[in-house]
Design a protein that fits this description.
441 residues, alpha/beta, Rossmann fold, Dihydrodipicolinate Reductase, domain 2, Alpha-Beta Plaits, 6-stranded parallel β-sheet, 13 helices, 18 strands, elongated, NADP, ACT-like_dom_sf, oxidoreductase
Length: 441
């Protein structure tokens, strides 16, 4: 077959962007893959809903079942979002043997095993390039281009909203709340920004990448997640004085094998946290709404993937790539060239965050009294930890002053225990802030 029919569910900002991109680049796509793509139906919430690009009226329907139940439609795009009705839509399409393309990272993160099992059962495929980092082809890189590599680490700036806020905080010395309000006004942040600024969107994405890289499903409940609400302009400035930039990083690391166990599955750590990144590292210069994913593997070494992580155009690019793959797979009768997750039964494990190791940045607010630093240092030493530097900036007015501690490499559990003990000192006032420091050594 040299032409496949496409049905789209969702005609809002992203959906109309995909429709527009297909209209603009249809001839180019056909010339490159040798297969035509014809849009047959587009399910929308309302015919007159606001959308950046028009959709041909005769193609629109208000009933998504008109798309998934049409026997003439071979490929379905789900661009509705969420984990409710979108799951029903995708399963209904897969059960009818249709290829499905989605940008729904929350759904993949929450229900990936069920969705991919349904695709296998009905001899079809689920494509999800647009679910992580927008227009950056990181899914295909991990799934296909690096299929012969052992992945040692992944570091991802995968949420444009947080990266925009942190960039503005560093450039302008502005407070988090002020930049967030501006981001909402400009459309970079949602009216309810919780999913972004509390780190959950990044967790959905880094969990998908971790699953691809290590061959077993990473449950999003096993990912340690911290957001950026607690960051202050002081933290941004102190980090800069120490030679670092704070970024919200999704991090995946290989962990040492379990003691006494041989031939067990991979052990990895997966986390999302504001992290101090050295100014000389390429990730420190990824600014505004851009995303970047740094992948280190063997034999390939270090690689970087950079681009726009969201928006109608970046998402449309990734969706078109998946549509092309779906059409070619259909044409050649190969529903799965490379399985998305190659070893679901593999005995892999996400280790507790408390077992991870790194250097740390600790910001305290303390009374400006003699002997305070000595007492804090004694607790640090008793916990078996060591400090690389102590910074107590001058010129701060008020009863308390900030105190910045930088540690050598330590286990998170030991660091948490020390911070708990320090917080009980009468001279320590207000909340502290503990962040990992990543030197990429």
């Amino acid at each position: 077959m040299n032409q496949f029919n496409l049905g789209m569910i969702g005609g809002g900002t992203v959906g109309s962007g995909v429709f527009h991109a297909l209209q603009q680049n249809s001839a180019l796509l056909t010339a490159r893959i040798g297969v035509g793509i014809a849009i047959r139906k587009v399910a929308v919430k309302a015919f007159d809903e606001p959308r950046p690009y028009p959709i041909t009226e005769k193609l629109m329907t208000l009933n998504w079942r008109d798309v998934v139940e049409d026997p003439e439609i071979h490929i379905v795009t789900e661009l509705v979002g969420g984990t409710g009705i979108a799951k029903t839509m995708i399963l209904a399409a897969l059960e009818r043997g249709k290829a499905v393309v989605t940008a729904n990272k929350a759904l993949i993160s929450a229900h990936g095993p069920e969705l991919f099992a349904a695709a296998r059962k009905h001899n079809t495929s689920l494509y999800f390039e647009a679910s992580v980092a927008g227009g950056i082809p990181i899914i295909k890189v991990l799934r296909e281009s690096m299929v012969g590599n052992r992945i040692d680490r992944i570091d991802g700036i995968v949420n444009g909203t947080c990266n925009y806020i942190l960039t503005r905080m560093k450039r302008e010395g502005a407070a988090f709340a002020d930049v967030l309000a501006d981001a909402q006004r400009l459309g970079y942040a949602e009216a309810d920004p919780t999913l972004d600024v509390d780190g959950h969107d990044a967790a959905h994405k880094i969990g998908i990448l971790a699953s691809l890289a290590h061959g077993f499903w990473v449950d999003h409940h096993d990912i340690h997640v911290e957001g950026i609400r607690s960051l202050t302009p002081l933290d941004i400035r102190f980090a800069a004085q120490l030679g670092y930039t704070i970024k919200l990083l999704g991090m995946v690391r290989m962990a040492p094998p379990a003691s006494g166990k041989k031939n067990s599955g991979p052990r990895i750590s997966v986390s999302v946290s504001p992290t101090l990144v050295p100014d000389g590292h390429v990730l420190a210069s990824v600014n505004d709404v851009f995303n970047a994913v740094f992948v280190s593997g063997s034999p390939i070494g270090d690689t970087l993937y950079y681009g726009r992580g969201a928006g109608k155009d970046a998402t449309a690019s990734a969706i078109l790539s998946d549509i092309a793959d779906a059409a070619l797979d259909r044409k050649h009768g190969t529903p799965q060239r490379v399985p998305p997750f190659v070893a679901h039964a593999r005995d892999g494990k996400v280790i507790p965050y408390a077992e991870t190791r790194s250097r740390f940045y600790l910001r305290l607010n303390v009374l400006d009294r003699a002997g305070v630093i000595a007492k804090i240092s004694a607790i640090i030493s008793k916990a078996g930890l060591s400090l690389s530097s102590i910074v107590q900036p001058e010129g701060h007015e008020g009863e308390t002053v900030p105190l910045i501690l930088m540690t050598h490499i330590a286990q998170r559990a030991a660091m948490d225990k020390a911070v708990t003990a320090i917080s009980k000192l009468p001279a320590v006032k207000g909340p502290s802030l503990l962040l990992p420091v990543e030197d990429f050594g």
